[in-house]
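tl;dr need the bound structure. longer version: we got a ligand (zinc ion) that a collaborator sent over and nobodys looked at where it sits. i said id run it. heres the input, straight from their email, havent touched it
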Amino acid sequence: MSATNAGASSEPLLIRGGRIITTTENRVADVLVEGERITAIGEDLPAGQARELDARGLLVLPGCVDPHVHLDTDFGGAKTVDDFTNGTAAAAIGGTTTLINFAMQWPGQTLAQALDAWKGQIEEHPPIVDVGLHMAITDLDYAGSFDELDAITRGGIPSYKVFTAYKGSAMLSDDDLLRVMESAAANDVLVMVHAENGDIVDLLQRRALEQGHTEPRWHAATRPALAEAEATSRVIDIAHLAGASLYVVHVSCAASLERIANARAKGWRVWGETCPQYLFTDESDLERPDFEGAKYVFSPPPRTPADQEALWEGLADGVLSVVATDHVPFTFARDKQLGRDDFSAIPNGAPGIENRLQLMHHFGVRAGRFDLHRMVDLLSTTPARIFGLHPRKGTIAVGADADLVLFDPQRRHTICAATQVSHSDYSLMEGVEVVGSPTLVTVRGRIVVEDGRVVGRPGDGAYVSRAPFDPAAADAPGQPLAVDG
Ligand SMILES: [Zn+2]
C-alpha cells in the first residue's frame, strides 16, 4: 500500500467490550489496535498506553467495502460532485473504509494515460478512506496493447469494467468483449460488466423521442428488464467461452437474477451485485411531478416491487454476493436539468454512498431478511475477497488492517439531503428513518468518524493496490452459504 499522505502515526486504541461480528463470529471481546493493524483480540486486555474506547452495547464490524463508486467523474454530460476527499468523507460516515472507483478510459486515451490521470485526481484530493481503482475499458482500439493492459493489472488493478450499454460511447461489441475476457482469463483478472442491450435501448429511445415522449418515465420504458436479462445472459456465456470470471454489476431485476442463478448452479464463475436503489425505489418514482422523477434516472432503471422482492431473496439465498452503491452524485438543481426536454439527456446516476450499512441493517437485519453475519458478508467480507483485499480487509482478525466500525444498533437517524456529507442536493431515501448507525470508524487505526461526525483528514486514506483475482477466495458458486444462524 502506498500512502498519498504520510501523516503522523495514530495512537494505540483499545476498543473495550464491543460485540464483534464477522461472517462466522459473534462474541463480546476487546480489540487492541497498534499502528495500522489489529494486534490483539481477547477478554480484559490490558490498556497499556492505548486510548480506551467504550464499546459496550455496540457492535464492532469490519469496515465496509464499496466496490462500485464514481467520484470526480464526467459522465453523460455532467461531472459527479464528490471528489476523492469529500466522497470518501461521505463513505466514512456510512461505515465504508475502502471504496473502489472506476478509472474510466476517455475517448482517445490509452488505458495507461487514463490510469495516470485517475491517480492524479486522487493525489489532488487525498482520500479519507482507502481507495482502489477498476480499469474501465470503453474503446479497445485506443486502449493500447494487451501487454500494457497486463502491466496495469499486475500493478494492483485486477478488475476490468466493460459496458454492453451506452451505444456510441462506452459500449463494446461482442468481439471486443470476447477479447477483453480472454485477456482477463489469462491474467487473473475479474471482468465486471454493466449488462444492458445497448442496441435495443438505443432503438427504443429514438422511437420514444420521435413519438414526442420526453418525460423521465420514458427512461425505464426504453430500458426494459429483458434487455438487461438478455445482455446478462450473453455476457455470462461469453465469459464462460473465454474461461473468464464475471461480476455483473447493479443487477436490477428478477429476469437477470434468474440467469445468474442458473450459471451459479452449474458452478460457473459468476457473481452478482445489487444496490440499495433497486431495493427501495421502483419505476413509479420516475413519474414524480415537477421533473423530480429525474432524480431516479440511473441505469439500469428502477423496476417493479416484484423485482425488489426477488433481489431481497437473492441477497438472502446467495444468488447475489454483494451490495454496492453505484454512487453517482449529480445535483437535481443543475445536472439533472440537462434532460428537461429529453429524458435520454438526463445524466444517469444517483447518490447513495453514505447510507448502505444503515439501510441493510434496518431493512435487512431488523426486518428479518438476513442476519448480521450475512450483512457483514454482503457489505464487507465478500467484496474484500472478490476484489483482492482479503484478509487484510473485510474481517476482524489479528494482523488485519484496523478498519473498524463501532455501530450502535439502537441509534436513530433520519436520512436527509440537507445533512448528508455528499455534495449532491438530494437523496433517494429522503425522510426515511433508520434504527442503527455507525458512531465511530477507523481506517488503518486512525479515527475518521467520531460521535457520528467526520473527523478524518485528507490523506488518512490511501490508494490501495489489490491482489490478483482468485476465484477460490471469493464465495463459491454452486455451494450453499457458509453462514451460521
Ligand atoms: Zn456504476
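gonna send this back to them w/ a short note. The two ends are 35 Å apart (CA to CA).
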